[in-house]
Amino acid sequence: MVLLQAENIRAYYFVSQGKVKAVDGVNLFLEKGMTLGLAGESGCGKSTLVNTLFGFVKPPLHLVEGTITLDGQKISDMDRDTLKKSVWGVTVSLVPQSALNALMPTKKVLDFIKDVVLQHQALSDSDILSMARKRFEELNLDVEALYMHPHELSGGMKQRAVIATSTLLNPKLLIVDEPTSALDVSTQKQVLKMLMDLKKASIIQSMIFVTHDIAVLRQIADLIGVMYAGKLVELSSTDNVLYDPKHPYTTGLINAVVTPEPEVRRRGIVSIAGEPPNLLKPPSGCRFHPRCKFAMDICSREEPPLLEVGDNTLVACHLFSSKGR
Fold first, then answer.
1. pLDDT above 60 (res 147)
2. Edge-first strand listing for the sheet containing 223-228
3. Distance set, CA 102 to CA 99, 105, 107, 250, 277 (Å)
4. Model pTM?
5. Cis, peptide link before residue 60, omega less than 30° from 0
6. H helices present in 21-120, as ranges
7. Domain 2-315 is classified in which CATH homologous superfamily?
8. Which residue of 11, 82, 103, 166 could cross-link 78, Cys pair, CB 3.0 to 4.6 Å?
């Protein structure tokens, strides 16, 4: 059963120089019980996409076109007050890139939790404390952290406290944006384990995990979507994307990552030539064609459609389209 469906999402930043086409015609869906990993270089539109899917759209960002349906509700038509009261934290929660700064330095973690819960439910302090203690215990977090200020916690503990707080009301979908990027390797593993535990315990049903490190996704994602310059260029199962990538950009991302496999050590790191385009004036046709070693004449003229290729893989590349053959 489909939990999230996004159709033709165009989310642009309106700035003095023009329109930054950060997300430009993205279609995707997520079934209940699945974890979708979103990968791509910095500036490819991942964070803008998940903020838009969450409904957190405010100037200079605008949802120019498209519809977002979550658990049967068309949230793209809802105003901010409705989203805040009826959707955020209840149906979907977002842990943003700046999550480590989400806790106010003057408040203890429990005070922060009270603020979140009281937006949705009129509970007593003792009920909120009981709820918070139960959730921390379920996730093997130190309950004493509830009584601490943010500066008394490690970066990893702050991240896990924010995630635990965001799931207090058991949202069906959890979106986490770069949750491990500022953490050391051992702490990253703790955060990843906690996220997987949330699903195993049915605290959440589905998850979208955003990262620039595609190798991290093999540990947590069922599906991987690869974004480039505001476009979704490949979407398939984690194994398909990591071990049989179709889009040249996906291959480039994987080859640029250090992993312990012998073939990777022999090959070494291979960087992607060139730089991501300016989304104020993106390239014509396929946005990756200026950097692609397989580019053909048609790539600069026509945008490739997102087509199903082989084993439930969607790819936007003229190497697989009838016009490019």
1. yes
2. 92-95, 173-177, 206-211, 35-39, 223-228, 231-237, 313-315, 307-309
3. 5, 9, 11, 32, 31
4. 0.92
5. yes
6. 46-54, 80-82, 109-118
7. P-loop containing nucleotide triphosphate hydrolases (3.40.50.300)
8. 82
